[in-house]
Amino acid sequence: MRHLIDPTDLTVRETEQIVALAEDIIANRAKYSEVCKGKKLATLFYEPSTRTRLSFTSAMLELGGQVIGFSDANSSSVSKGETVADTVRVIRCFADIIAMRHFKEGAPLVASQYAGVPVINAGDGSHSHPTQTLTDLLTIKREKGRFDHMTIGFCGDLKFGRTVHSLIKALSRYEGIKVFLISPEELRLPDYMLAEMSENSKLEFREVRTMEEVMPELDVLYMTRVQKERFLDEEEFDRVKNSFVLNPEKLLTAKKDMIILHPLPRVNEITRAVDNDPRAAYFRQVENGKFVRMALILTLLRWADENRPFPHTPVFNEEYVVNELVCPNRRCISATEDVDQLFRRMPDGTCRCAYCETKAR
Questions:
Q1: What residues does 127 pair with on adjacent strands?
Q2: Domain that holds residue 234
Q3: Burial, 266: exposed, middle or buried (Cβ in 10 Å; 0-12, 13-18, 19+)?
Q4: Peptide bond just before 184 cis, omega within 30 deg
Q5: What phi and psi values does residue 3 have, to the nearest 5 degrees?
Q6: Which of 349, 340, 344 is nearest to 321 (CA)?
Q7: Is the same domain home to 82 and 41?
Q8: Is residue 267 located within the same domain as residue 328?
Q9: 278-312: per-residue pLDDT in tens?
């Protein structure tokens, strides 16, 4: 059974095949209007979402399928204390594929071990958001015509921005990628990701503090919101906030064919005056999300084994260190639900939680 929990669950070739399928769907929408007839998608959204949930819903409906699920966990048995594992074992009786968003990091991985149908991670805490990554990749392909030999600036909240983490992982597999990490010190990329990037010989990266100093070099500017609630000192927030607001003046030195991406929602980090700039691709990016999710749903259903319960659960998709360590991250699903403590052994001998990638102490 194949799932999409992390962007690297797909090989580079598989990723490019899904992007190519999305482009074919865009060009031939009528051809795909009944391909999922008789199939059901369950959208299990444990936290608020507008674009992602409606994008999945629209995608399945355009493929001729049906959608069930919930957009508020308080209206489901979750409010009674039902675990993720039990929820998906019930839902798999009604659906052929599941899209899950959860505030706990690693929840979709737990779901994949029990569901018996394909599970798509629609965002888990601040950890990963692989379908946004596919959306970003399709947008980059349509706007720039390639994935390699490109300079990308990630700006704003790089610490908690799951979309940033996922896209960096995906792009790091291509040649000639140069990354600028533009953030305040308080919101810099997590150390584990900086370490992974340092070990990747294909990737060149540098941390900077303002977008102006790198703007002329960028092919893609990926904006995210600098979140005031992450700062303990409001004066510190006031000091840095305007450095991470994109306005027409800051675009004066940018390339004419640079594109601006944003996972949305935005607050004030891109001014309204930028919206009519032809380089502003963030609303085109939203529409691309529907098409790439159509391609992903269709691909996972084609790959799915016969839809029947696992003979026993949980089912692990790789070799783990099991129940020998405890994850210290309180945002991890393993901190609040009765699941196996799973760790991956890294090349340097350390262990990282399989659910949230936190390093074992």
A1: none
A2: 146-282
A3: middle
A4: no
A5: -130, 170
A6: 344
A7: yes
A8: no
A9: 999 999 999 999 999 999 999 999 999 777 778 89
pTM, entire model: 0.92
Could you tell me if 258 and 295 lie in one domain?
A: no
DSSP category for residue 354 = T
Question: Which sequence positions are flagged as catalytic?
Answer: 51-52, 80, 101, 129
Among the listed ranges 188-202, 312-326, 343-357, which one has the minimum average pLDDT value? Answer: 188-202
Contacts of 346 (CB under 8 A, 6+ apart): 352
Asked if residue 312 is part of any domain, the answer here is no
Residue 127: phi and psi, rounded to 5, are: -85, -65
Q: Which two tokens stand for residue 200?
A: 């990747």
Domain harbouring 58, CATH code: 3.40.50.1370
Q: How far is 260 from 155, CA to CA, in rounded Å?
A: 11
DSSP conformational letter for 332? B
Pairing of strands 40-45, 66-70: parallel
How many structural domains comprise the chain? 3
In a domain, 223, yes or no: yes
**Tokens representing residue 232 in the block:** 């303990």
